[in-house]
Write a structure and sequence with these properties.
Low-confidence stretches of chain B: none
Number of strands of chain A: 0
Order of helices and strands of chain B: HHHHHHH
Oligomer: heterodimer
Distance between the termini of chain A: 52 Å
Distance between the termini of chain B: 42 Å
Helix content of chain B: over 70%
Low-confidence stretches of chain A: 1-16, 211-217
Shape of chain B: globular
Order of helices and strands of chain A: HHHHHHHHH
Structural class of chain B: mainly alpha
Helix content of chain A: over 70%
């Protein structure tokens, strides 16, 4: 990496018109308030790309790619990245606050009500059913994502190794990440030197064979 | 005060190791909250997780209820900040660095390498929730029907999740 390279221009300089911080807050607030049933990223795409047209689909998917690589919730990471792109630090803060405040208010209300009623057997039954249903939902989401990103047999190996380490061997997540993460990244490392060596080897072997053919004649 | 500090530390840690998102960090959250610190039983943990499914926004906002249960409103505030702020700061700087790294071929390696690990962690999260919530045929049936319908067509998950809650209530009464 060339560290001497100057920082890329701040996102503000690239956008033609400056989006108001208040407008950012309002849009993310709406997405945060209306996104019942999860899948917040899909709501963000609808509001930011299609309705407000603050960014195009390619930039949105670029931001999503980075959000998926970084730790944390995708929707929150997306809000930071897009908010920063629109209006710097203030934009990022407004986006995250807008996204989280409605859900947080509803969660606190539910939390207070639940605390008073948590021994109610009917409420417990409903919540068990909700959790069981969520298992089906999480399975669908995980399989869809896995299907999209699964290209090599090695992927399956890393998926299984991670599952076994965390769920069956009960290894702490920090340790699992610090061992399997670097291993998987190393497996997908840039192949510059490797391919150069391979080319040299092929070239030498070709010459060797042509020499042998030459001597045979 | 000691409890607030532990809460802050635990949820800040969970925030920065959540590669693969909220589901991926669920087993570690259960391990720390239920088994290591004994802050609550596994059934309470499951019930709070379920509350998160019915609220709008990211489901993982349910962490504020864990904080509320343990240390009231202050606990909710501490957990909310600890779980979201470190990750936001990390993402902010990583995003600005990322554009400088755009030509680096290690960027692709990082993405390609972490993707299967994230999927493995999401599987672990799903498994952890299944162990907490599926203890009989009815639970299994609700999970299977939800999975079947969602694989078949796009339905708002909130509908299926409400139906799941209702079905188990009828079964349990």
């Amino acid at each position: 990496m060339d560290l001497a390279k100057p920082l890329s221009p701040t996102p503000n300089e690239r956008t033609a018109h400056r989006v108001q911080v208040g407008a950012i807050f309002k849009t993310f607030f709406t997405a945060g308030a209306i996104s019942f049933g999860g899948g917040v990223v899909a709501y963000l795409r609808e509001y930011l790309v299609h309705q407000q047209q603050w960014l195009d689909d390619d930039s949105f998917l670029d931001a999503l790619e980075l959000s998926e690589t970084l730790p944390g919730l995708n929707s929150v990471n997306m809000s930071v990245i897009i908010g920063d792109r629109l209006r710097g630090v203030a934009g990022a803060a407004a986006a995250v606050a807008g996204l989280l405040l409605p859900g947080m208010a509803v969660m606190m209300t539910l939390g207070v009500l639940w605390s008073q009623q948590r021994h109610n057997p009917h409420l417990r039954a409903v919540l068990i059913g909700v959790a069981a249903s969520a298992v089906g939902l999480l399975t669908t989401v995980t399989l869809q994502l896995g299907h999209r990103q699964f290209t090599r047999a090695a992927d399956l190996l890393f998926i299984v190794a991670t599952f076994v380490a965390v769920s069956l061997l009960k290894i702490s997540l920090v340790i699992a990440l610090l061992t399997l993460g670097p291993l998987a990244i190393w497996y997908y490392r840039p192949a510059t030197h490797g391919s150069e060596t391979a080319h040299l080897f092929l070239h030498l072997r070709e010459r060797f064979h042509s020499h042998r053919a030459h001597w045979r004649h | 005060m000691y409890k607030l500090c532990s809460l802050a530390w635990v949820f800040a840690l969970l925030s920065v190791v959540a590669v693969g998102g909220g589901t991926a960090v669920l087993p570690e959250m259960e391990r720390l909250v239920v088994h290591q610190f004994h802050w609550m039983g596994d059934q309470q943990f499951r019930d709070i997780y379920s509350l998160g499914q019915v609220a709008p926004g990211p489901n993982m906002l349910m962490v504020v209820v864990i904080g509320y249960r343990l240390a009231g409103t202050a606990g909710a505030a501490v957990v909310g900040l600890a779980f979201f702020l470190p990750d936001c700061i990390l993402t902010f700087f990583a995003n600005r660095l990322w554009s400088r790294l755009s030509e680096s071929r290690w960027r692709t390696a990082l993405q390609r390498g972490l993707a299967p690990v994230a999927i493995g962690l999401m599987l672990s999260g799903t498994y952890a929730l299944a162990r907490l919530s599926i203890s009989n045929v009815m639970g299994l049936a609700i999970a299977a029907v939800t999975f079947g319908i969602l694989s078949w067509r796009r339905v708002n998950p909130l509908l299926l999740i409400s139906a799941g809650g209702l079905a188990y209530l009828i079964f349990a009464v």
